[in-house]
């Protein structure tokens, strides 16, 4: 499954490779080994289901022709002691299994003139080997499809042990049976391996190539370049770009080149560039999702600062004089998409917003009072939650200037405490509720990330993780 997930990403390669990836994935030797274990387990289960068709025939021996039949043949045990999954640079994975063995049982029946005999038998096959290369292409629906190519199989030593009946009789056709079963097994192995691989295609359909985030956004994880296959790793480049739901509008910026550091401790490394985060900010700002209306009931009751003309009148007397006893509303709106910056061990978000203050009239109409320009900076803590990338922010600093005023001139600095209280008690917590929901990382099926670590590097994040599949 894990190998299939990585290979499915390889399949999603567009015809052009003109853009840099927003997300990079590195599958290490440790991850490849886990993929080998899953692949072998899947093939082993398939081999255990082998049932040979009934066989019958005649064999000429020293005493004449003997008719025989073999029925109810089924596999009772399969062993795959040595299996290797090698990466062929520039090509892809190749699975090789040697020294495999199987145990088969069935019933035999023989007729020679007027003599009839029957019993059971067990057959041991040893020194079995087969290898297959894996090819992945898109199916007609655009989904990836995996198939086994260049498969070769060889069944080596065979030994048969009969039970029941006269030994002198079944020994006459013992070698004939061994050769017949050996030939039949060699015919069955490669189609069965191919079937085991093709069964993974149903799982490939769960790949979140276009993953919905919420009602505003979705993120695309299609490939932007051919995979780089070396002897120890597979490196993949994904688009990693946010879009408005149903509207794929490109942002006025492009992803920059970035590289993952040479880490090998985890199975998988995921690099997420600042471009991916910037595209998210662009999408949410375009959708108008970064605006927030704030009323007094959103301010904690313990706060001495209230959103009413009495509180603001202390700092701007003309508000209390012209609009006595009224509640107020603040509308915070982004002037442009926030700027997200990744530096070593430090993620920050800078934004330029407008804060419009209204007096709420008794008939619920809003009277505009003033507009402030707010430049703010927040520190971001980014973390992995399940299979999603989530975050939380805290206020670093802010700067207020006056945009327009309908209540005359006033010292903007006198409102610092009020606006800072609104940011810390309403705006930041509201943002953190949404950020905690996170957005989906590229996953397949019931994939679980374990032993996960996250580093903030220059220009990108790097997630190192191991992987488990629960089904």
Protein architecture, described:
With about 475 residues, the protein is of the alpha+beta class. It has helices at about 1-10, 30-45, 165-170, 175-200, 200-205, 275-285, 310-315, 315-320, 415-435; strands spanning about 25, 55-60, 65-80, 80-90, 90-110, 115-140, 145-155, 155-165, 210, 215-220, 230, 235-240, 240-245, 270-275, 290-295, 325-335, 340-345, 345-360, 365-385, 390-405, 440, 445-455, 460-470. The strands form four sheets. Strands 2, 3, 4, 5, 6, 7 and 8 form a seven-stranded antiparallel beta sheet that branches. Strands 15, 16, 17, 18, 19, 20 and 21 form a seven-stranded antiparallel beta sheet that branches. Strand 5 (about 90-110) and strand 6 (about 115-140) form a beta hairpin. The longest helix has 25 residues, at about 175-200. The radius of gyration is 34 Å and the shape is rod-shaped.
List keywords for this structure.
471 residues; alpha+beta; seven-stranded antiparallel beta sheet; 23 strands
Question: How would you concisely characterize the structure shown here?
Answer:
The protein has 471 residues and is an alpha+beta fold. It is built from nine helices and 23 strands. Helices cover 23% and strands 46% of the residues.
Please identify the oligomeric state: single chain
Distance between the termini: 9 Å
Mass-distribution shape: rod-shaped
Total beta strand runs: 23
Helix content: 10-25%
Q: What value does the Rg take, in angstroms?
A: 34 Å
Strand content: over 45%
**Structural class from helices and strands?**
alpha+beta
Main beta-sheet annotation: 7 strands, antiparallel
Contiguous runs where pLDDT drops below 50 for at least 5 residues: 8-17, 140-144
**What's the total helix number?**
9
**What average pLDDT do the residues reach?**
85
């Amino acid at each position: 499954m894990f190998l299939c997930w990585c290979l499915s990403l390889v399949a999603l390669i567009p015809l052009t490779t003109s853009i840099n990836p927003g997300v990079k994935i590195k599958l290490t030797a440790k991850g490849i080994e886990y993929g080998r274990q899953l692949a072998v387990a899947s093939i082993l289960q398939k081999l255990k289901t082998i049932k040979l068709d009934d066989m019958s025939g005649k064999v000429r021996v020293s005493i004449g022709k003997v008719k025989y039949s073999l029925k109810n043949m089924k596999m009772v045990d399969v062993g795959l002691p040595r299996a290797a999954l090698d990466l062929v640079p520039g090509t892809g994975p190749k699975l090789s299994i040697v020294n495999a063995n199987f145990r088969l049982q069935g019933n035999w029946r023989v007729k020679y003139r007027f003599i009839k005999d029957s019993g059971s038998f067990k057959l041991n096959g040893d020194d079995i080997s087969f290898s297959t290369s894996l090819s992945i292409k898109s199916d007609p629906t655009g989904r990836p499809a995996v198939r086994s190519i260049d498969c070769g199989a060889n069944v080596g030593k065979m030994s048969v042990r009969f039970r029941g009946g006269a030994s002198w009789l079944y020994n006459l056709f013992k070698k004939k049976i061994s050769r017949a079963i050996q030939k039949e097994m060699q015919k069955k192995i490669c189609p069965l391996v191919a079937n085991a691989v093709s069964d993974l295609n149903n799982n490939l359909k769960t790949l979140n190539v276009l993953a919905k985030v919420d009602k505003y956004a979705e993120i695309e994880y299609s490939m932007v370049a051919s995979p780089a296959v070396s002897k120890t790793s597979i490196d993949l480049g994904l688009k990693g770009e946010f879009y408005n739901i149903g509207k794929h509008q490109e942002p006025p910026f492009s992803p920059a080149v970035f590289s993952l550091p040479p880490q090998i401790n985890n199975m998988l490394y995921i690099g997420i560039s600042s471009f991916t985060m910037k595209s998210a900010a662009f999408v949410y700002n375009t959708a108008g999702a970064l605006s927030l209306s704030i009323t007094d009931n959103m301010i904690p009751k313990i706060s001495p600062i209230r959103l009413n003309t009495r509180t603001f009148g202390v700092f701007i007397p003309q508000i209390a004089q012209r609009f006595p006893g009224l509640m107020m509303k603040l509308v915070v709106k982004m002037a442009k998409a926030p700027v997200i910056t990744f530096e070593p061990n430090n993620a920050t978000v800078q934004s330029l917003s407008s804060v419009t203050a209204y007096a709420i009239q008794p008939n619920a109409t809003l009277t505009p009072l003033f507009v402030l320009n707010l430049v703010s900076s927040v520190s971001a803590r980014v973390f992995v939650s399940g299979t999603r990338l989530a975050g939380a922010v805290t206020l670093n600093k802010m700067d207020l200037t006056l945009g327009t005023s309908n209540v005359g001139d006033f010292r903007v600095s006198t409102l610092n405490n009020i606006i800072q209280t609104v940011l810390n008690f309403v705006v930041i917590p509201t943002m953190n509720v949404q950020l905690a929901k996170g957005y989906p990382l590229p996953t397949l099926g019931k994939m679980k990330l374990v032993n996960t670590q996250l580093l903030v590097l220059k220009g990108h994040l790097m997630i190192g993780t191991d992987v488990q599949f629960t089904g």
